[in-house]
Amino acid sequence: MAMGKRPKARQGSPLWVTTADLPTNAGHPFFEHLNRVLEAAGFDAYVEELCAVFYAARMGRPSLRPGRYFRMLLIGYFEGLSSERGIAWRVADSLSLRSCVDASENASLF
Fold it and tell me: What sign does the CA torsion over 66, 67, 68, 72 have?
C-alpha cells in the first residue's frame, strides 16, 4: 500500500453535501418583525413617492429601490455599522438579512 492511501473500505463518505441537506433556519426574528411592520405601514410606496424626484427617468446605472436602501441603513443602525461597505458585507454574509432586504443571492447590494 502506498503512503497516504487508505483502503477503499475505510475511505468513508464523499466530502460534499447537497444544498438540500444543508440546515435552514427561520431567519432573524427582529428583522422579520420589522419587515412586517414596515409592510403594514406601506413603507416602500411611501419612500418611493418621497424619493421619486431624485431618481432620473433614464441614463445611468439602475438604482436600488429606496425601500431596500433604507432597510439596509436600518440594519446598519441596529447592528452598529457605520459604513455602507460594512452594511453591504454584513447583508451579503447573512442569508436571513438578505431575505430582510429582499435581495437574491446574486444581486448587487450597493
Answer: positive
Whether the model pTM is above 0.70: no
Q: How far is Cα 97 from Cα 91, in angstroms, rounded to an integer?
A: 5
- CA distances 84 to 34, 38, 72, 88, 106, Å, are 20, 21, 9, 6, 18
* Residue 101 DSSP label: T
Ranges of each domain in the chain: 28-100
Q: What is the pLDDT of residue 93?
A: 86
Sequence-distant (≥ 6) Cβ neighbours of residue 82 within 8 angstroms: 76
| Range name among 44-48, 51-55, 85-89 with the lowest pLDDT average | 51-55
